[in-house]
């Protein structure tokens, strides 16, 4: 299965630490390298990365990482990386075959979350989103979180940054099917800006958007220096297996 990683945006709140959000080091290792190693450990055999801001630098790094890990990493460059993230999904999905693991480049996950998405996502849905019902967790930024309201079956009823009520938070990892990109296009055609959440909402309207409760698994959205510091404190032991099984990293300290 392919993984699609969205890594085109600017990341203004992390710019003081690094000019490229996906290349920002956590414990000396770029975020995107940790993400790709976890995806490989979960069973991914090919990675598509949508690039934009600092594309040349990121693509050079990915070419080297592909050689180090022995896995195909395919960059897809977005010409206008200021557009909402759904446009990145549309661009990257053209290079994915069948269902794919969709990940945000500034999020880190326990491999368990990715593995469960691959093996437990319902076959009859357009996508499955990893959600966290621990909405008061100190690892979640309430100012930036994407909230989710689910029904009694765990299907998505509503998703967005400003919705109320909500009972979970979007973790930034999905098992997506070929239905997702057309759903985002449909949202754009209806006058929306083209965010991923708007595409998910289109699928939710047809009861095609499922969720996977991550329960007590670890994840973090590294969106500003505070959450970067939390990642530095908590991340490395979650990645010990990936580093052991996918080869040594070139640590930048």
Q: How is the biggest beta sheet arranged?
A: 9 strands, mixed
Average pLDDT for all residues: 94
Strand content: 15-25%
Q: Helicity level, as a percent range?
A: 25-40%
State the CATH class.
Alpha Beta
Class derived from helix and strand content: alpha/beta
The CATH level-2 architecture is identified as: Alpha-Beta Complex
Tally of helical runs: 8
CATH topology name: Spore Coat Polysaccharide Biosynthesis Protein SpsA, Chain A
**Outline:** globular
Distance between the termini: 33 Å
What's the CATH H-level homologous superfamily? Spore Coat Polysaccharide Biosynthesis Protein SpsA, Chain A
Task: List segments where confidence is low: pLDDT < 50 over at least 5 consecutive residues.
Answer: none
Number of strands: 13
Radius of gyration: 17 Å
Q: What is the succession of H and E elements?
A: EEEHEHEHEEHEEEEHHEEHH
- The number of distinct structural domains comes to 1
């Amino acid at each position: 299965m392919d993984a699609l990683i969205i890594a085109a945006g600017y990341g203004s709140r992390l710019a003081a630490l690094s000019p490229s959000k996906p290349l920002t080091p956590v414990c000396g290792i770029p975020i995107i390298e940790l993400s790709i190693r976890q995806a490989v450990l979960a069973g991914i055999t090919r990675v598509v990365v949508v690039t934009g801001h600092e594309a040349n630098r990121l693509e050079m790094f990915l070419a080297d990482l592909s050689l180090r890990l022995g896995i195909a990493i395919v960059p897809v460059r977005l010409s206008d990386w200021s557009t909402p993230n759904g446009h990145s999904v549309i661009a990257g999905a053209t290079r994915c075959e069948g269902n794919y693991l969709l990940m945000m480049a500034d999020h880190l996950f326990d491999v368990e979350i990715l593995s469960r998405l691959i093996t437990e996502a319902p076959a009859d849905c357009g996508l499955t989103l990893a959600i966290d019902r621990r909405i008061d967790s100190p690892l979640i930024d309430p100012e930036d979180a994407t909230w989710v309201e689910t029904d009694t079956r765990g299907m998505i009823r509503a998703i967005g940054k400003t919705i109320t009520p909500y009972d979970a938070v979007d973790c930034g990892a999905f098992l997506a099917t070929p239905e997702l990109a057309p759903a985002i296009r449909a949202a754009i055609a209806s006058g929306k800006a083209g965010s991923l959440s708007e595409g998910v909402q289109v699928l939710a309207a047809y009861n095609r958007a499922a969720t996977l409760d991550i329960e007590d698994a670890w994840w973090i959205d590294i969106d500003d220096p505070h959450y970067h510091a939390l990642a530095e404190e908590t991340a490395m032991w979650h990645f010990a297996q990936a580093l052991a099984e996918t080869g040594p990293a070139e640590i930048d300290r």
